[in-house]
Design brief:
Blueprint (H helix, E strand, L loop, with lengths): L6 E5 L3 H13 L3 E5 L2 H11 L3 E5 L7 H9 L9 E5 L6 H7 L4 E4 L4 H16 L2
Parallel strand pairs: 1-2, 1-3, 3-4, 4-5
The structure holds manganese (II) ion.
Keywords: Phosphoprotein, Two-component regulatory system
InterPro entries: CheY-like_superfamily (IPR011006), Sig_transdc_resp-reg_receiver (IPR001789)
Protein name: Response regulator
Length: 129
Amino acid sequence: MAEKTGKVLYVEDNFENRVLIRRVLEAEGYQMFEASTEDEAFRQIGDHHPDIILMDINMPDMDGYTLTAKIKAKPEYKGIPVIAVTANVMRGDKERSLGAGCDGYIQKPIDVDILTEQIERYRLKKDNL
Ligand code: MN
Protein backbone atom coordinates (compact mmCIF):
# COMPACT_ATOMS: atom_id res chain seq x y z
CA MET A 1 0.00 0.00 0.00
CA ALA A 2 1.32 3.43 -0.89
CA GLU A 3 2.32 5.62 2.03
CA LYS A 4 -0.14 8.32 2.96
CA THR A 5 1.21 11.80 3.24
CA GLY A 6 -1.80 13.79 4.36
CA LYS A 7 -2.10 15.97 7.43
CA VAL A 8 -4.77 14.92 9.90
CA LEU A 9 -6.01 16.98 12.83
CA TYR A 10 -7.72 14.94 15.53
CA VAL A 11 -9.82 17.00 17.94
CA GLU A 12 -10.42 14.82 20.99
CA ASP A 13 -10.43 15.36 24.75
CA ASN A 14 -9.54 11.75 25.60
CA PHE A 15 -5.79 11.19 25.83
CA GLU A 16 -5.89 7.43 25.23
CA ASN A 17 -7.94 7.88 22.08
CA ARG A 18 -5.46 10.46 20.79
CA VAL A 19 -2.51 8.14 21.44
CA LEU A 20 -4.20 5.22 19.70
CA ILE A 21 -5.26 7.11 16.60
CA ARG A 22 -1.92 8.89 16.34
CA ARG A 23 -0.13 5.55 16.42
CA VAL A 24 -2.37 4.02 13.78
CA LEU A 25 -2.27 6.96 11.38
CA GLU A 26 1.44 7.75 11.78
CA ALA A 27 2.18 4.11 10.98
CA GLU A 28 0.28 4.66 7.73
CA GLY A 29 2.38 7.71 6.92
CA TYR A 30 0.04 10.52 7.91
CA GLN A 31 1.27 13.58 9.73
CA MET A 32 -0.77 13.92 12.92
CA PHE A 33 -1.84 17.01 14.81
CA GLU A 34 -4.02 17.02 17.89
CA ALA A 35 -6.21 19.39 19.83
CA SER A 36 -8.39 19.00 22.88
CA THR A 37 -9.90 22.49 23.04
CA GLU A 38 -11.40 24.97 20.62
CA ASP A 39 -8.43 27.35 20.90
CA GLU A 40 -5.98 24.56 20.20
CA ALA A 41 -8.03 23.36 17.27
CA PHE A 42 -8.01 26.78 15.61
CA ARG A 43 -4.30 27.19 16.32
CA GLN A 44 -3.51 23.83 14.74
CA ILE A 45 -5.68 24.56 11.71
CA GLY A 46 -4.05 27.96 11.20
CA ASP A 47 -0.52 26.65 11.68
CA HIS A 48 -0.73 23.37 9.78
CA HIS A 49 -3.63 23.53 7.32
CA PRO A 50 -4.77 19.92 7.80
CA ASP A 51 -6.16 17.98 4.86
CA ILE A 52 -8.84 16.49 7.04
CA ILE A 53 -10.21 16.88 10.58
CA LEU A 54 -11.45 14.08 12.79
CA MET A 55 -13.86 15.65 15.27
CA ASP A 56 -14.85 14.07 18.55
CA ILE A 57 -18.40 15.09 19.38
CA ASN A 58 -18.40 14.66 23.15
CA MET A 59 -15.96 17.05 24.79
CA PRO A 60 -16.27 18.76 28.17
CA ASP A 61 -15.78 22.37 27.05
CA MET A 62 -17.80 22.30 23.87
CA ASP A 63 -19.38 19.77 21.62
CA GLY A 64 -17.89 18.86 18.29
CA TYR A 65 -20.98 19.97 16.40
CA THR A 66 -20.59 23.53 17.64
CA LEU A 67 -16.88 23.55 16.88
CA THR A 68 -17.47 22.14 13.41
CA ALA A 69 -20.03 24.86 12.71
CA LYS A 70 -17.49 27.49 13.82
CA ILE A 71 -14.81 26.04 11.54
CA LYS A 72 -17.20 25.82 8.60
CA ALA A 73 -18.26 29.44 9.17
CA LYS A 74 -14.76 30.56 8.20
CA PRO A 75 -14.40 30.84 4.43
CA GLU A 76 -10.70 29.92 4.54
CA TYR A 77 -11.41 26.68 6.45
CA LYS A 78 -14.76 25.54 5.18
CA GLY A 79 -13.21 23.39 2.45
CA ILE A 80 -11.46 21.16 5.00
CA PRO A 81 -13.44 17.94 5.35
CA VAL A 82 -14.59 17.28 8.93
CA ILE A 83 -15.48 13.75 9.99
CA ALA A 84 -17.54 13.51 13.17
CA VAL A 85 -16.42 10.78 15.55
CA THR A 86 -19.01 9.82 18.09
CA ALA A 87 -20.24 7.06 20.33
CA ASN A 88 -23.73 8.51 20.07
CA VAL A 89 -25.75 6.04 18.11
CA MET A 90 -29.05 7.71 18.69
CA ARG A 91 -31.42 8.26 15.86
CA GLY A 92 -30.89 11.60 14.23
CA ASP A 93 -27.24 11.79 15.19
CA LYS A 94 -26.03 11.39 11.64
CA GLU A 95 -28.44 14.10 10.50
CA ARG A 96 -27.21 16.35 13.30
CA SER A 97 -23.56 15.95 12.33
CA LEU A 98 -24.34 16.68 8.69
CA GLY A 99 -26.47 19.63 9.74
CA ALA A 100 -23.51 21.09 11.65
CA GLY A 101 -21.48 20.94 8.45
CA CYS A 102 -19.64 17.67 9.01
CA ASP A 103 -18.69 15.94 5.77
CA GLY A 104 -18.96 12.50 7.24
CA TYR A 105 -19.55 10.48 10.31
CA ILE A 106 -17.79 7.54 11.94
CA GLN A 107 -18.77 5.64 15.00
CA LYS A 108 -16.77 5.01 18.16
CA PRO A 109 -15.05 2.78 18.97
CA ILE A 110 -13.07 3.63 15.86
CA ASP A 111 -12.44 0.61 13.65
CA VAL A 112 -8.76 1.13 12.91
CA ASP A 113 -8.90 -1.35 10.03
CA ILE A 114 -11.18 0.89 8.01
CA LEU A 115 -10.15 4.31 9.36
CA THR A 116 -7.63 5.11 6.63
CA GLU A 117 -10.08 3.95 3.99
CA GLN A 118 -12.65 6.39 5.37
CA ILE A 119 -10.11 9.22 5.53
CA GLU A 120 -9.02 8.65 1.94
CA ARG A 121 -12.58 8.56 0.74
CA TYR A 122 -13.29 12.00 2.22
CA ARG A 123 -10.02 13.43 0.94
CA LEU A 124 -10.84 12.19 -2.51
CA LYS A 125 -14.23 13.84 -2.30
CA LYS A 126 -12.57 17.15 -1.46
CA ASP A 127 -10.04 16.83 -4.30
CA ASN A 128 -12.87 16.34 -6.77
CA LEU A 129 -14.65 19.54 -5.82
MN1 MN B 1 -14.60 12.87 24.06
